[in-house]
Amino acid sequence: MTTITPRRHPNPWFVGVVSGMASYIDACAIVSAGTALTIYQAALGFTDAQVGLASSALTLGIAFGALFGGPLGDRFGRKHVFSVTMLMIVVGAACQVFAPSFPVLLVSTILVGLGTGADLPVSLATIAESATDENRGKIIGLSNLLWTGGIVGAIVAGSVVGNWGRLGGQIMYGQVMVVALITLLLRLPIPESEVWLAARRERESGVGTVRAERVTVRTLLKPPYLKPFIALIVFYALVNVPANTGGQFTTWINVNVIGMDVAFSSRLSLLMMPLGFLWGIWFMRIVDTPRRMPYFYMGAACYAGAYFIYIIGGFHVWSFIAVSLINGFGGAFAFEGVMKVWTQESFPTLVRTTAQGTIVFVARIVAAIAASVTPSLVSLNPRVAYMILVSFAIVGYAFAIWGFRGKQRNEFAVEGHAEADVAAAEEAGVDFTVSPEPKH
């Protein structure tokens, strides 16, 4: 007699930590590149235009990686894609460490970007699909803490090696390589997403559930998915521009506009980073409750409003501190974390990473275009540059409010139901939305 041993499901918090390292690496790669490029500019004689090109290349790589990685994650599964992408990051970061010239650095930066971008949607889907309605927002919020951790890791390294010349830049790139390698090894034992496997089985056997039937890109262009799809694209694309500017160019702006040196800039940023973890934990406590949107409104006002300190007060050490504190608080409740939760809840399983990949692609393309001109624009008139950033944020938040005010759709609540029943209910005006309630 053969005994069948039930498959053991991994702890969702463990999955959240390991898969969430994609967010760590994303943030760490962007911020490390900003510091390392500033160092390489002095050590290897790069021009401002080359710094802008390399920064833009990283963002473009992330964008196209997400565009192709999302559909691959839906077609072949989450596990295979995020294993390959980690290997790409390891190889690309190693090439950045030893790059002898700008062309080699540029190519390796593109490779890191492609791997990071392709990893983001499949990693977030893995987290969401291993969780429950009671803890999904919290565990996705944990990935946002890891995103903050990536910033901290880069700033810590920069504060230590910022004045070491080229060796300092090599260490900045090298830390990304090491973290990616460790993450790859930790991910190998994690099995494929059970939700994705169930959706694929239902699709292959002809079972008419929502997650089995709604599997084409055209699904995203029809109700009820079109509105959140458009809202998320515009929201994330526009609000990400000032965030990406801060991630890639904080060191450059502090050195070239305010007059700090690299090490002081990194240490000053590092002193404020513990608050980022505090805000992240706060977000995890409220994201699965009805307080999600009130906090979003408050966060949006702080995130966009902080830049007026630069516009009105000028560029000084004190204004950098004030902007960083207020903007960081706002972003905890009205940027990356809530975007990740909304993207998981809004789309069916077999197009979930495709939708996310498209959203990230558009956002990073817009950010890449902005990054390519940021050094020149800031050098010309920093106040005008930040007025443009504020305008982007305000328009982005307007689209987010349009798409997600009131009750919010949670696809996990309906996608296991029969497609015909859900379609008939939708035609009858039934709204498959949920208002998160506190868990007692």
TrEMBL record:
Molecular function per GO: carboxylic acid transmembrane transporter activity
> Where would you find this protein in the cell?
Cell membrane
Q: Where are the transmembrane segments?
A: 12-43, 49-69, 81-99, 105-127, 139-165, 171-190, 225-243, 263-283, 295-312, 318-338, 359-378, 384-404
Pfam families in the cross-refs = MFS_1
Where is it found, in Gene Ontology cellular component terms? plasma membrane
Keyword Transmembrane assigned to the entry: answer is: yes
For the keyword Phosphoprotein, the answer is no
Q: Gene3D superfamilies, alphabetically? A: MFS general substrate transporter like domains
CDD domains registered for this protein in UniProt: MFS_SV2_like
Under the heading InterPro entries, the entry gives: MFS, MFS_dom, MFS_trans_sf
Q: Which UniProt keywords apply?
A: Membrane, Transmembrane, Transmembrane helix
Signal sequence span is: none
Describe its membrane topology: Multi-pass membrane protein
The residue ranges of the Major facilitator superfamily (MFS) profile domain are 12-408
**Where mainly found?**
membrane
Q: Which protein are we looking at?
A: MFS transporter, SP family, inositol transporter
Give the species. Actinomyces ruminicola
Source organism phylogeny:
Bacteria, Bacillati, Actinomycetota, Actinomycetes, Actinomycetales
